[in-house]
């Protein structure tokens, strides 16, 4: 219940935060919402000597439209995503996804940037961002770079975020009007991590699949893009045969870790089932 | 001596200052230094919600907040809901609808419902259940808690000027 | 004689029995002003943090305290060696065994207590605990109770290896605890041999945990000056604990005070005496200052009294019409490393022999073999009424199995086997005399309310479409209110209970009882009993429990015993007062006692209603000089009630579930619960208990378990994995009732709070299995989690699109 001792820093600018990261190196951890990090520290699974709180830095929160993208500050909370009228209008997939994250209290504090940069395949935003083909703006001592979600997640708790870098902004291409969306998350109870979950975007043309994006949560060491499943659907009607094949191809790329939610066989089967359900739900919502 | 930060915030309308180590959790500051033992500790993995307080207009689990993160915050706990000897509609409703038994989840539950009704003054049963899903109860099975929140919502709505 | 509306008004003013009186205890809880043990702060108080074993079975080669002692704020580090001089490194358990307070030379379950660090605050204590270094030599662990009695099994309890008996009869193996049986094995075997049909199932009741929202803890405060020990404690049985502490510590019982304040849920978790309490007490004695110990949630789930872990075999023998002729239920009971749970000396397997249920079964035999494993100790807990959850699960499951085998409807087979109303009081073939029951109308009422036939039609239609819908029934009989002292004791202390009532001159009342509420609303319900008995308003009746300096002795609140035992004592004490008040009234009215009638709140003279004395007037009169010759002043009484029997509440429950054959998810569509607890004191409180007990049943049936790997390591001991449902998963409960009073209870009341748990679990489990019945499935073990149910679907090949 009690974390081990550490020093606390609350920089008021991004350069200051980056400088602190440079000074303390791997003795330091960034504190965003704290709802992944602090629970680990309370069990002493994480014992950083320095915490750098991003909460006092202006300009890291907010949801805005920028051309054909939505820009989301990394410190924007899940609750802000849930209530965002702009997202409801332009990227409803993120609203649906955020609603399934944890519980109301955690959502008031948990941030989209924290959820992404933790590198935990059980978190929901990684797959959502993969499905949306989002990009992440990373700022370090040497400046800023933009990394696509597809290139960001490297392994269990391993991301492209380098030491000394801070994720500052998420850039989400606005799905074209008429795009259907769904995030189907199977869980033991509300608030739990996914037993399996699938994020889908779907556009139809004359009843056939014109564009589709499928990404899976908690089915491997990173979020997984079901590229083969996507390819199998293009140009087809979403009939039983198409759904079955897509689900099967999604299952093929899964390598889930066995835990109390299920063994690998169950989780893989559920990844397939969630893919199917997300496709069907997205089709209902597609224009 | 471990390094201490002085943190100032308002608690139930009163200004407080505390000197705390960075690792001190808000729940411990509230309960042990500031003697507000309404919020309770029910777990150490941030699941149960018994520690819920209202901070800058948000329901937060005070066991997952460092006190040093609360500089300048405006905080309300269960102790602050009764005003001038008058119970908040939620407190009265929990009593009238038997929304508590052992009382341990009650401060966190009522504090959460307080913010819920601020943001959603007319919630359906399903919405209430969804929006209190961060607060666990072992005694009531939630059924009377839902009734209590609905009753309080009606009472608060009726009290609004037309 | 007043007119009806005037009488009604006077009765309404009392707010006595039968009224849904709003609770008196709410006032502090809704304001966050409850006083739970972690709220207590005493001057100079130290905080104790336990160091626990990472291994399930290991020798302790050495403990190095030096780094911990050097940690700022740490005052002392206690190990078994520090407890030896006061002989407290081991303690007797409520089960007749001994348990290590701090591990002495070896540890027997993961997270067993090894040392306690005392520090000035909990942060320093946590730091100190992290610095204690223990050198372990790992030993092979026994996790499967079926392996405990193997010839080559490692001996877990070396401390009692030579003992042939650990309180409950001869042991056949060092890892054997006891074998207990009831009934007539030969008669049962004969019934099976001659039966038209027999059914047999292996039925697991998995290890689960009550998990109240408040964990266990204490503040122990020993005064060197006075020699008095005060312990503020999360205990459902403060008086028993006081006696046990006196036996343990050598401090005279007159100098020990145990205080149960507000308790955040018990559910049986807070009955045993845990090592943390004992070490905190020793620490306070040694340091002379108060010591607080509060456990974490993970420690609570991992080390305090778990529930169930019964590996059962159920067998029924019946005729071709489904009338049960014989029952054989046996269970291998995994008790963990110490036999610590509350056990009446004669009933080490609790009240398991209630397993004939609501049915007239002529020949029955049951047996429980209890063994040690390298897991935390416990077994009796979690709203179980002392193994009644295990017993009722077996019979309610097996009668469904029998119904399926014979193709008889699951409601009809119960009708055919019910004990009939005219047979009560009914002595079962396992020896319990059920006090009263009326099972048929209860079942019919429920079946009608849910349109049972309509549901079966709907089920048939859905099955034709390949959909899974299940209907579960449970018609259970509970056994609560332990109990008659001839049969029921803990460490020799009889399970009576008590109520002491004092009446004040101006009509107020204070009543103290030997029970201990943890949310059951005793301050309200006992006041209602006394209000009706004495004709004084409940609003003026203060009820206290829990402070052993003030309250009369009782065995506490567990096993739904408060209403049956202490509630009876309250009625009896009140009647003693009323008898004295009658004498005073007769004296004041100058009539004979036989000329008086009791009318709601006063004595009136027969045939002369204008002549009356209200109880309120008599309260004052009792304190004056104008009393019958030789009568002492005061209107006070105490009753110690030794119940003549236990009580037998019953119920009829129906559950409808829909199962998603692709994910395995079970959704409870409807749950209708009819309970009969005899006389109902406060319907609102009863309904609240039913909601809570059913929600806990739902959690057990659909998701709870305490899993281990093969080395005895916990795999899911935090709230991440231990399933506590939120408001989203929890179904809406529909409640109903009938009233069949207990003939032997002064109020006819039976107790109710565990019934929904005892009946709810098999009802939900039966519903899930019923969903698969048409596919030949006869049994599925709990928990019916989505994953496990999916495995059943997958095995049947029905999870394909």
Plain-language structure description:
Chain A is α+β, with helices and mostly antiparallel strands and 287 residues long. Chain A is 36% helix and 26% strand. Chain A folds into three domains: 7-53, Uridine Diphospho-n-acetylenolpyruvylglucosamine Reductase, domain 2 (2-Layer Sandwich), CATH 3.30.43; 63-173, Uridine Diphospho-n-acetylenolpyruvylglucosamine Reductase, domain 3; 180-285, CO dehydrogenase flavoprotein, C-terminal domain (Enolase-like, domain 1), CATH 3.30.390. Chain A has a five-stranded antiparallel sheet. In chain A, helix 11 packs across helix 12. The longest helix of chain A has 22 residues, at 264-285. Chain A is globular, with a radius of gyration of 19 Å. The termini of chain A are far apart. Chain B is α+β, with helices and mostly antiparallel strands and 162 residues long. In chain B, helix 2 (89-96) packs across helix 5 (143-159). The mean pLDDT of chain B is 97. Chain C is of the alpha+beta class. In chain C, a hairpin with a 5-residue loop joins strand 25 and strand 26 (509-513). In chain C, helix 10 (388-406) runs parallel beside helix 18, helix 12 (439-450) crosses helix 13 and helix 17 crosses helix 18 (755-770). The mean pLDDT of chain C is 97. Chains in contact: A-B, A-C, B-C. At the B-C interface, helix 1, helix 2, helix 3, helix 4 and helix 5 of B face helix 2 and helix 17 of C.
């Amino acid at each position: 219940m009690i974390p081990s001792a550490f020093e606390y820093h609350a920089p008021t600018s991004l350069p200051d935060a980056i400088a602190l990261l440079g000074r303390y190196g791997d003795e330091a951890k960034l504190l965003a919402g704290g709802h992944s990090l602090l629970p680990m520290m309370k069990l002493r699974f994480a014992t950083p000597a320095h915490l750098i709180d991003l909460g006092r830095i202006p300009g890291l929160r907010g949801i805005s439209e920028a051309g054909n993208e939505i820009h989301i500050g990394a410190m924007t909370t899940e609750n802000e995503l849930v209530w965002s009228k702009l997202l409801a209008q332009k990227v409803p997939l993120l609203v649906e996804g955020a609603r399934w994250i944890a519980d109301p209290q955690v959502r008031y504090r948990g941030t989209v940037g924290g959820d992404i940069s933790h590198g935990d395949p059980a978190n929901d935003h990684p797959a959502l961002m993969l499905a949306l083909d989002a990009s992440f703006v990373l700022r370090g001592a040497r400046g800023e770079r933009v990394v696509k979600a597809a290139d960001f997640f490297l392994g269990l708790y391993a991301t492209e975020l380098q030491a000394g870098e801070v994720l500052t902004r998420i850039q989400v291409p606005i799905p074209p009007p008429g795009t259907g969306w769904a995030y189907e998350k199977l869980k033991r109870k509300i608030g739990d991590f996914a037993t399996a979950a699938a994020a889908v975007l779907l556009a139809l043309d004359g009843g056939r699949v014109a564009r589709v994006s499928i990404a899976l949560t908690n089915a491997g060491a990173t979020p997984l893009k079901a590229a083969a499943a996507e390819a199998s659907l293009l140009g087809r009607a979403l009939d039983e045969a198409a759904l079955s094949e897509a689900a099967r191809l999604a299952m093929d790329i899964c390598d889930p870790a066995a835990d109390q939610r299920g063994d690998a066989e169950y989780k893989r089967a559920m990844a397939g089932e969630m893919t199917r359900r997300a496709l069907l739900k997205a089709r209902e919502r597609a224009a | 001596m471990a390094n201490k930060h002085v943190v100032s915030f308002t608690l139930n309308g009163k200004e407080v200052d505390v000197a705390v180590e960075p690792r001190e959790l808000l729940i411990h500051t509230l309960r042990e230094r500031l003697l507000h033992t309404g919020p309770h500790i029910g777990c150490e993995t941030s699941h149960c919600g018994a520690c819920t307080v209202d901070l800058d207009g948000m329901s937060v689990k005070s066991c997952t907040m460092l006190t040093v993160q609360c500089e300048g915050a405006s905080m309300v706990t269960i102790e602050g809901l009764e005003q001038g000897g008058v119970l908040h509609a939620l407190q009265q409703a929990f009593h009238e609808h038997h929304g508590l038994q052992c009382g341990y989840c009650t401060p966190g539950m009522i504090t959460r419902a307080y913010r819920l009704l601020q943001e959603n003054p007319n919630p359906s049963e399903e919405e209430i259940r969804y929006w209190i899903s961060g607060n666990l109860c072992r005694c009531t099975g939630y059924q009377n808690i839902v009734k209590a929140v609905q009753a309080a919502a009606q009472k608060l709505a009726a009290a609004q000027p037309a | 004689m007043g007119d009806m509306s005037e009488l009604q008004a006077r009765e309404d003013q009392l707010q006595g029995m039968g009224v849904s009186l709003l609770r008196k205890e709410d006032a502090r809880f809704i304001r966050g002003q409850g006083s739970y043990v972690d709220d207590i702060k005493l001057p100079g108080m130290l905080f104790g943090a336990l160091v626990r074993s990472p291994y399930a079975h290991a020798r302790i080669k050495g403990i190095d305290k030096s780094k911990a002692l050097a940690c700022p704020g740490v005052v002392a580090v206690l190990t078994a060696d520090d407890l030896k001089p006061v002989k407290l490194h081991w303690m007797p358990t409520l089960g007749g065994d001994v348990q290590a307070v701090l591990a002495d030379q070896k540890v027997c379950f993961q997270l067993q207590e090894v040392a306690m660090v005392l520090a000035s605050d909990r942060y320093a204590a946590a730091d100190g605990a992290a610095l204690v270094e223990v050198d372990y030599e790992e030993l092979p662990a026994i996790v499967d109770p079926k392996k405990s009695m193997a010839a080559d099994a490692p001996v877990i309890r070396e401390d009692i290896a030579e003992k042939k008996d650990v309180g409950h009869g001869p042991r056949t193996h060092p890892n054997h605890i006891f074998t207990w049986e009831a009934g007539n094995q030969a008669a049962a075997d004969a019934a099976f041999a001659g039966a038209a049909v027999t059914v047999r199932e292996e039925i697991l009741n998995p290890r689960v945990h009550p998990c109240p929202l408040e964990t266990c803890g204490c503040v122990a405060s020993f005064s060197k000056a006075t020699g008095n020990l005060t312990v503020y404690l999360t205990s459902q049985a403060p008086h028993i604990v006081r006696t046990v502490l006196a036996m343990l510590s050598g401090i005279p019982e007159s100098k020990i005070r145990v205080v149960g304040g507000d308790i955040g849920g018990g559910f049986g978790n807070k009955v045993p005496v845990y090592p943390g309490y004992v070490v905190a007490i020793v620490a306070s004695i040694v340091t002379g200052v108060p010591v607080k110990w509060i456990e974490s949630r993970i420690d609570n789930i991992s080390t305090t009294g778990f529930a169930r872990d019964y590996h059962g075999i159920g067998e029924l023998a019946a005729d071709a019409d489904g009338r049960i002729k014989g029952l054989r239920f046996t269970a291998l009971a995994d008790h963990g490393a110490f036999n610590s749970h509350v056990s009446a000396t004669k009933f080490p397997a609790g009240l398991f022999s209630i397993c004939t249920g609501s049915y007239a079964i002529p020949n029955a035999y049951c047996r429980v073999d209890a063994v040690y494993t390298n897991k935390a100790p416990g077994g009796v807990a979690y709203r179980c009424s002392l193994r009644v959850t295990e017993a009722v699960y077996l019979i309610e499951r097996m009668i469904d199995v029998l119904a399926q085998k014979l193709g008889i409807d699951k409601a009809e087979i119960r009708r055919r086997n019910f004990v009939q109303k005219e047979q009560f009081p009914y002595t079962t073939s396992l020896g319990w005399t059920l006090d009263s029951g009326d099972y048929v109308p209860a079942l019919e009422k429920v079946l009608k309310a849910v349109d049972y036939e309509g549901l079966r039609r709907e089920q048939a239609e859905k099955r034709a479409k390949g959909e899974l819908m299940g209907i579960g029934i449970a018609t259970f009989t509970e056994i609560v209110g332990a109990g008659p002292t001839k049969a029921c004791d803990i460490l020799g202390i009889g399970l009576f209970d008590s109520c002491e009532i004092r009446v004040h001159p101006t009509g107020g009342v204070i009543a103290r009882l030997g029970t201990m509420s943890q949310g059951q609303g005793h301050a309200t319900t006992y006041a209602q009993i006394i209000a009706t008995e004495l004709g004084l308003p409940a609003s003026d009746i203060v009820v206290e429990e829990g402070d052993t300096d003030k309250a009369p002795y009782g065995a506490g609140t567990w096993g739904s015993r408060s209403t049956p035992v202490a509630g009876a004592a309250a009625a009896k004490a009140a009647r003693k007062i009323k008898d004295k008040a009658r004498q005073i009234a007769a004296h004041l009215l100058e009539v004979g006692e036989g000329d008086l009638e009791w009318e709601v709140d006063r004595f009136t003279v027969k045939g002369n209603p204008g002549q009356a004395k209200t109880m309120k007037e008599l309260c004052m009169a009792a304190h004056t000089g104008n009393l019958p010759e030789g009568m002492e002043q005061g209107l006070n009484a105490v009753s110690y009630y030794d119940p003549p029997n236990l009580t037998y509440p019953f119920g009829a429950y129906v559950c409808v579930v829909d199962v998603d054959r692709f994910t395995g998810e079970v959704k409870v569509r409807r749950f209708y619960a009819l309970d009969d607890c005899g006389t109902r004191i406060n319907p609102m409180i009863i309904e609240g208990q039913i909601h809570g007990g059913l929600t806990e049943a739902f959690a057990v049936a659909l998701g709870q378990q305490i899993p281990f790997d093969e080395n005895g390591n916990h795999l899911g001991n935090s709230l991440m994995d231990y399933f506590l449902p939120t408001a989203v998963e929890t179904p809406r409960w529909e409640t109903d009732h009938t009233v069949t009073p207990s003939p032997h209870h002064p109020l006819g009341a039976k107790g109710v709070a565990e019934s929904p748990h005892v009946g709810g679990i098999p009802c939900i489990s039966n519903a899930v299995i019923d969903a698969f019945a048409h596919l030949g499935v006869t049994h599925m073990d709990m928990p019916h989690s989505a994953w496990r149910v999916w495995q059943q679907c997958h095995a049947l090949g029905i999870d394909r699109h």
